[in-house]
Design a protein that fits this description.
Largest sheet of chain A: 6 strands, mixed
Strand order of the largest sheet of chain B: 1-2
Order of helices and strands of chain A: EEEHEEHEHHHEHEHEEHH
Bound molecules: adenosine-5'-triphosphate, magnesium ion
Structural class of chain B: mainly alpha
Distance between the termini of chain B: 10 Å
Number of strands of chain A: 10
Chains: A alpha/beta, B mainly alpha, C alpha/beta, D alpha/beta, E mainly alpha
Order of helices and strands of chain B: HHHHHHHEHHHHEHHHHH
Radius of gyration of chain A: 18 Å
Number of strands of chain B: 2
Number of domains of chain A: 1
Number of helices of chain A: 9
Strand content of chain A: 25-35%
CATH topology of chain A: Rossmann fold
Helix content of chain B: over 70%
Oligomer: heteropentamer
Radius of gyration of chain B: 19 Å
CATH architecture of chain A: 3-Layer(aba) Sandwich
Chain lengths: 244, 307, 369, 234, 287
């Protein structure tokens, strides 16, 4: 196992507000890493940095040892980092199938027919549980379905590492269980590294190998799930007193 | 490709060979102009209908093609056959440049910038009358030494068919899908590995080049190039044809071009009312049948031979 | 058929649509006149009026339609030099006789096309025989030439410059945008030069803006303004738009209520008044009237609608129209070939009345400065 | 107070709600549970006048509102935290809150209510001038809740209340819900975290593919075997 | 020197005039994401209305002006209800509809009012000698001050009133706005009507200086677009600044560079701004 993604001293400010402060992190191949923290801690911003939507004010970002700090989103995607959005953004006026096909095209490995791409997209839709929705216009899906669609689209780009921003939000406990199984399959079958943000503690504790906790842009804790839940700083900032 | 899909265009093309044998000079002229508009409306549709970028510079690009080719012919004696290719190249380059400027902004900004561009072009052309002969128009040689409507008809026909094939291929390729993705959500497309900038510029460049080519042909056919070619009035016609025919469909603009050009021959007798009638037709179609005549004829028909 | 169709080209839409209106009126009167007399060759005369929109390319196409679709034996009209220049090429290609009435560019007849005639003013003629002598004879010391960026503006301004150079009268030239509305900057520049006459080669509303703003910035009436085209100073809206600033403005015209050069002119005036209940204002009404008569006369004398015959007849024209007796020049090599220029007048607004101030022999009053 | 009687609701061609009836009494907290796509949001939106049922009837405070426009319903004192937050992205945080107090009745208390919302979510005070679209997901959720409170509603519809909120904030929000309840605000709550929802309400409905399949007090529901399996993941 | 001051004065006056003719476009773009191509035509119609009311019907000019604006307001409302309403949320669709509409209205104006330019009577005549350096038309000065008054009023309306806030909310999420109690039909209608009325206001205020002609409408729309993009879409402050920049550039450019290229300067700065600050001088950068 080797490190695939690594960030060193990443910082990002918006006006006077520093959303991400000097964060170091790494993702090992095949790992599931959770990212938690209070609202506004800078989690999504960190994802935006990694996927190239923002460029860090300071710090460097590496993918397999290659410096990707200044690359644009599509380049990073083609190098192997896929993502979903917390506030979903499927291609609203296109069908589900087309949404996923775009992801496949985004891989940029040419010489394949539209028909074959279509077939592959169908498989991916089935994989995330959207079979039967191929022709549905994405705008007509429910929020959760849109999230799954985004996941299929991200998977379609065949990333080495995939960034999932709150894909479980809005699922009920039993649905969460199914989703966790899906995530596990992504790791084991598709051999992808998973970096995910989640506020559903039960799930993230259960499925993550390692958890990073942010607060006010800074990394306040990193470690195994058990270590995290008992850390007083994490409890104070994020979990709140009673529960644990 | 299934058989049905294949033979319908072929029949059309074969039918298109015959008009010079029975049409009068006058109607042949109308057909030639219609073919010009087919090229313009279809290539405009490529960006407006398929990537949703309503450009107002399309007529301007055809003007660039026309003027470049025309001026090369007049001042350097270059053959129009080469000239139109150079004109197309220059239009493509400027399209690339303008596309590059516009990619940062979507929608309305693009529309207004292209509007500005076409105004700048118009002003330059009218003011630099020493070279362009201003509003007086630049007299240029034609393609053929012997003036013959039939030859022009076939020339326009062949090139129009070539352009249509390219357009058809683009919208039915992966590129077409990426165009739409970029249009839907640029950030999401980018994060899915689509080089959004490239896609947008590419679309813009291709369509500008096509307009440049069409403009060059048109100029050498009329043997007179005036600032009216790159004017907003011309732009209106092109837009009206695409809208009336059906934007975002392959056949729509083709149909629209013939419909409108032929219609205009009939309503010409109403003189001053004729632009108004045009406008009203376009307006009611845009308002009540946003998918155009094609939409009215029904998707079914289109699916037979275009999709 | 029992009908002879005469083709007409002119702008019915676009910025110069006003000319189209003037043309329609003139045509109506001419047709009434001709058909009342039994038409031509025993047939009624009709007109097919194709719109050019004031755009050369549309003009060429309009002409082409007249030639190929309507197959008219002769075409008359046009008021834009740019359109006319495009049309003469088509006329030449299809060998259709064409009589132009109000496009002033030299090249139109200078090209010496067999099929092209002009019974109307030509830039060089207007400048050489009227504008330049007017400036010289009235002792103006410094001239400002303001020209719009159109074919007509460019041509007439260049000719004027040549003339001024010959006379040794100092001048400056300022180019303006045809669609400008605000001339303060231009006027301030002119004011700095301190001219005593401005030759304004601006057609259309622009002229109204120019005249009224010249007054606002204190340039006129100290310095006089001559409208080199004419019609804009006669439009109904002129006085409304310029207000008092119109006083003492000068303009070119070929028509004046008191100056009737021929009996036909009087008849035209009466017919017009009868039909429209007002005095004619735009002299283009009369110009088109003239060319329709000339065309009918040529067909009549040619006894056929065949193109060669018509041209032959045209070359022998000797017809009285409202502005004089038409005779086309036949010497090749200059703009005078197939050209007949009507006499022109320089008119000044004095107390909102038109006073002919030049040439002296037609004058109804004297120039006020 | 709110009475939904046998409504059939369509979205486009598809029927989403089938003969659905629920009722909410003054001062109650009622929850609706259901799997994804079962029609919870559609139900809420139908009450709000976004969709109009093909059949059936909705009454609020004794008045029929089945075909009333949303804004009129909102002016009757119904406010909501919609699914997906739907804050006004290009307006500032403060302006978003102001918009919450749009109905005439609420405008006069504007200053007070803003103060109250700010005390509930201090982050929003800090960010008062920030363009709302740049807030983090959770901050936007807080803003959406704050905005809904601004009109001092008598009926509050909460769709996915705790979505994207940190556990700590979630707890605080439920604290607030309790307070609102004490102030006699009626609440219809939709929440994926069924345990949490049931713990805070009196009664609940279970929605499955557009039909009510079960209803009862929270105790009853918590005790139901099927529910424990399907919704609580126990 | 006096010449330079003259150019400057005229630049400022024309700048404010540009701003007032653009503010209607800016408002509608900002609020409804609709570029109203028919803006110039509404302006022209207002100019003709006020001309015909005062000249043909003898209504006093000071009454004719607001009356015409009110007519245009009604026309705007009519437009919104019949043509614009179905286009909400689809910028391109509305762009096409209003573009075609502008051609229709322009030709209609040509038929109704004829091709000749017309102007309502001046409210004030003559010129003022400014500092003894140069003369400046009184009507221009008057229109300048009226325009400033209107701009201030619009600022107040949009930024400070509930009506202003509600139209902004509707512009961002129609459905949500109605969920907080905003009658979005009415707001949309009124704000489009307001934008139209502003076009009309510009028309009646400016027509005494620059008579209206049907064919002049596209130039008016174009100038308005340049101003709006310069300042940043939907930014009212930007609209004023954009107008001033354009006014200055046109006058100084015409004075010191070329009178022929007067109109091009605006477009050139426009392109420059778009290269370096695509969201305009005062617009917000959004993703
Ligand atoms: N474009 C921006 N401009 C200004 N501030 C921003 C911008 N984007 C994010 N922020 C601010 O940066 C902070 C971090 O935001 P981020 O979205 O990363 O939070 P998060 O950890 O994902 O929170 P949540 O769990 O609520 O989604 C927030 O306070 C947010 O308001
Ligand atoms: N615009 C639409 N057009 C057609 N069908 C739609 C549309 N929006 C949603 N649906 C369908 O309506 C059904 C119910 O959707 P709804 O949003 O009410 O579910 P929900 O219970 O709120 O689900 P979730 O837990 O995912 O929010 C779903 O099957 C969805 O596919
Ligand atoms: Mg987040
Ligand atoms: Mg829902």
């Amino acid at each position: 196992m080797g490190t695939i993604v690594e960030g060193k001293g990443l910082s990002k400010s918006f006006g006077g507000l520093t959303a991400v402060k000097k964060i170091d992190f790494y993702l090992e191949e095949g790992e599931i890493v959770g990212l938690i923290g209070p609202n506004g801690a800078g989690k999504t911003t960190l994802f935006n940095l990694v996927s190239g939507i923002f460029h860090p004010d300071e710090g460097k970002l590496f993918l397999n040892g290659r410096d990707i700090t200044e690359l644009r989103p599509f380049e990073i995607c083609r190098l192997g980092i896929g993502r979903t959005f917390q506030i979903v953004r499927p291609f609203l006026k296109m069908s589900c199938l087309e949404n996923v096909m775009v992801g496949i095209i985004g891989r940029n490995d040419r010489n394949r027919g539209r028909a074959e791409i279509g077939r592959e997209a169908e498989d991916l839709l089935k994989f995330v549980g959207l079979d039967g929705f191929e022709g549905t216009i994405a705008g007509n899906l429910t929020l959760i379905q849109k999230k799954r669609l985004e996941m299929a689209r991200a998977l379609a780009t065949e990333p080495r590492a995939i960034l999932l921003d709150e894909v479980l939000a809005g699922l009920n406990p039993s649905e969460i269980l199914q989703a966790l199984a899906l995530i596990e399959t992504i790791r084991s079958k598709l051999k992808m590294t998973i970096f995910w943000i989640e506020h559903v503690m039960g799930a993230i504790m259960k499925a993550s190998d390692r958890i990073i906790v942010l607060d006010q842009g800074e990394k306040i804790k990193e470690g195994k799930p058990e270590e995290i839940v008992s850390d007083p700083r994490v409890i104070g900032a994020y979990l709140g007193e009673t529960d644990a | 490709m299934n058989v049905k899909k294949f033979w319908i265009p072929v029949v059309f093309i074969i039918l298109a060979i015959f008009p010079p044998f029975f049409l009068s000079q006058y109607w042949l002229h109308v057909m030639i102009i219609s073919l010009f508009y087919v090229m313009m409306a279809s290539s405009w549709n490529l960006i407006a209908g398929f990537t949703g970028q309503v450009s107002f510079a399309h007529a301007a690009f055809s003007g660039i093609g026309a003027y470049v080719s025309g001026m090369l012919a007049v001042y350097l004696g270059l053959s129009p056959w080469l000239g139109i290719l150079v004109g197309m190249g220059v239009a493509a380059l400027l399209g690339l440049g303008l596309g590059y400027l516009c990619i940062r902004m979507g929608g309305i900004y693009l529309s207004l910038t292209t509007l500005g561009f076409s105004e700048i072009l118009r002003i330059i052309i009218t003011n630099e009358d020493r070279w362009t002969r201003g509003t007086m128009g630049l007299q240029v040689p034609g393609f053929f030494t012997e003036y013959s409507k039939a030859s022009y008809y076939y020339l326009f026909l062949i090139i129009a068919i070539l352009l249509l094939i390219v357009i058809y291929w683009i919208i039915h390729s992966e590129m077409g899908l990426t165009f739409r993705a970029v249009l839907n959500d640029e950030l999401a497309a980018s994060s899915s590995g689509i080089n959004t900038i490239q896609v947008r510029i590419l679309a813009f460049t291709i369509s500008s080049a096509m307009a440049g080519l069409a403009g060059g042909l048109y100029g050498h056919y009329l043997m007179l190039i005036t600032p009216d070619i790159p004017s907003l009035g011309q732009m209106f016609l092109v837009l009206a044809m695409a809208v009336i025919g059906g934007m975002g469909s392959f056949v729509g603009p083709i149909l629209g071009s013939f419909l409108l050009e032929i219609l205009s021959e009939y309503i010409r007798i109403y003189g001053e009312y004729h632009v108004l009638i045009f406008g009203l037709v376009a307006l009611s179609v845009a308002r009540f049948a946003p998918e155009g005549v094609i939409g009215i004829l029904g998707k079914k028909w289109e699916s037979v031979w275009a999709r | 058929a029992d009908i002879i169709k005469i083709g007409v080209v002119g702008p019915r839409t676009g910025p110069a649509a006003a000319t189209g209106k003037a043309f329609e009126e003139g045509i109506a009167i001419a047709l009434d006149h001709l058909n009342a007399k039994g038409g031509v060759l025993g047939k009624q005369v009709e007109v097919v009026f194709e719109d050019t929109g004031g755009v050369p390319e549309k003009a060429a196409s309009a002409f082409e339609k007249l030639a190929t679709r309507d197959k008219v034996p002769i075409v008359v009209g046009e008021s834009h030099s740019s359109s006319a220049l495009a049309e003469i090429e088509v006329a030449n290609r299809y060998k259709v006789p064409f009589i132009i009435c109000e496009a002033w560019h030299d090249d139109i007849t200078k090209k010496n096309y067999k099929w092209v005639f002009r019974a109307g003013p030509v830039n060089s003629g207007v400048v050489d025989f009227y504008i330049a002598p007017f400036v010289k004879d009235n002792g103006f010391k410094k001239v400002a030439i303001v020209r719009e960026n159109s074919d007509w503006g460019v041509g007439i301004a260049e000719r004027t410059e040549t003339n001024m150079k010959n006379f040794g009268i100092p001048f400056t030239t300022l180019k303006v945008e045809r669609e400008s509305k605000d001339f303060y900057t231009e006027l301030t520049k002119i004011k700095a030069e301190n001219p005593d006459i401005i030759l304004a080669y601006i057609y259309g509303t622009g002229l109204h803006f120019f005249v009224s703003q010249a007054n606002e910035v204190g340039l006129s009436p100290k310095c006089l303004i001559l409208d080199g085209a004419g019609p804009p100073s006669l439009w109904d809206t002129f006085w409304k738009n310029v207000g008092k600033a119109g006083e003492l403005e000068l303009f070119m015209s070929s028509m004046h209520e008191k100056v009737h050069l021929t009996p036909t002119s009087r008849k035209f005036w009466d017919d017009y008044k009868k039909k429209y209940g007002k005095d004619p204002t735009d002299y283009k009404t009369r110009s088109i009237y003239n060319v329709v008569l000339i065309a009918a006369d040529a067909i009549h004398r040619a006894k056929s609608t065949e193109n060669e015959a018509i041209v032959a007849a045209l070359e022998k024209t000797n017809l009285e129209v409202t502005t004089g007796i038409v005779k086309f020049g036949l010497k090749q090599g200059s703009y005078e070939y197939h050209q007949w220029m009507p006499p022109m007048l320089v008119v000044q607004w004095q107390d909102q009345k038109q006073v002919v101030v030049y040439p002296k022999d037609a004058a109804t009053g004297s120039l006020k400065k | 107070m709110l009475e939904v009687k046998g409504i059939n609701v369509f979205r486009g061609e598809a029927q989403i709600l089938w003969n659905m009836s629920i009722s909410v009494e003054q001062g109650e907290i009622v929850t609706v549970l259901g799997a994804n796509g079962s029609g919870k949001t559609t139900l809420v939106e139908s009450i709000l006048g976004v969709h109009h049922p093909k059949m059936g009837k909705i009454t609020f405070l004794g008045e029929e509102i089945t075909f009333r426009s949303s804004f009129l319903i909102a002016r009757m004192g119904v406010s909501c935290v919609p699914e997906g937050r739907r804050i006004f992205k290009d307006m500032t945080v403060y302006e978003n809150l102001e918009m919450g107090a749009y109905p005439m009745k609420a405008r006069s208390f504007l200053k007070e209510t803003v103060g109250w919302v700010y005390s509930l979510f201090p982050v929003l005070r800090e960010r008062g001038g920030q363009i709302a679209g740049t807030l983090s997901g959770g901050e936007q959720q807080m803003l959406a809740i704050g905005r809904a409170l601004m009109s001092k509603p008598i009926l509050l519809l909460l769709d996915e209340l705790s979505l994207g909120l940190s556990p700590k904030i979630t707890k605080e929000i439920y604290g607030t819900i309790k307070k609102l309840h004490q102030e006699k605000v009626t609440i219809l709550l939709i929440e994926q975290n069924a345990t949490l929802a049931l713990r805070h309400c009196y009664r609940g409905y279970i929605l499955e593919t557009g039909r009510i399949t079960l209803q009862g007090t929270s105790q009853e529901l918590l005790g139901n075997e099927h529910i424990r399996k399907a919704y609580l993941g126990l | 020197m006096s010449e330079f001051l003259m150019y400057l004065t005229n630049g400022i006056v024309m700048g404010v005039i540009h701003a007032i003719s653009a503010i209607g476009v800016s408002l509608i773009v900002g609020i409804m994401k609709v570029v109203n191509f028919a803006h110039g035509e509404l302006y022209i119609f207002a100019g003709y209305f006020s001309y015909h009311l005062s000249i043909s019907l003898g209504v006093p000019p000071l009454l004719a002006m607001p009356l015409s604006v009110f007519f245009i307001f009604l026309v705007g409302i009519g437009m919104e209800r019949t043509l614009i309403r179905p286009t909400y949320g689809d910028e391109m669709y509305s762009l096409i509809i209003t573009f075609v509409l502008s051609i229709v209205l322009q030709n209609a104006a040509l038929l109704i009012f004829g091709p000749y330019p017309n102007k309502p009577p001046n409210l004030i005549s003559g010129a003022t000698n400014i500092f003894g350096l140069y003369h400046y038309g009184n009507q221009r000065l008057l229109s300048f001050f009226i325009s400033i008054g209107i701009l201030v009023f619009i600022f107040y309306l949009i930024k400070k009133t509930w009506f202003g806030k509600s139209i902004r909310a509707v512009s961002q999420d129609r459905g949500m706005a109605s969920l907080v109690g905003v009658d979005h039909y009415r707001v949309n209608m009124l704000s489009f009507g307001l934008g139209a009325a502003l076009a009309g206001t510009a028309g009646v205020v400016i027509a005494p200086i620059f008579p209206v002609t049907p064919t002049g409408s596209s130039a008016i729309s174009l100038t308005a677009f340049v101003v709006v993009v310069l300042g940043g879409m939907g930014s009212l402050k930007g609209c004023v600044v954009g107008g001033l920049i354009l006014g200055m550039m046109e006058n100084l450019g015409a004075a010191y560079i070329s009178t022929m290229y007067r109109q091009i300067f605006g477009f050139i700065i426009l392109i420059l701004v778009l290269v370096f600050r695509p969201w305009g001088l005062f617009g917000q950068k959004t993703q």
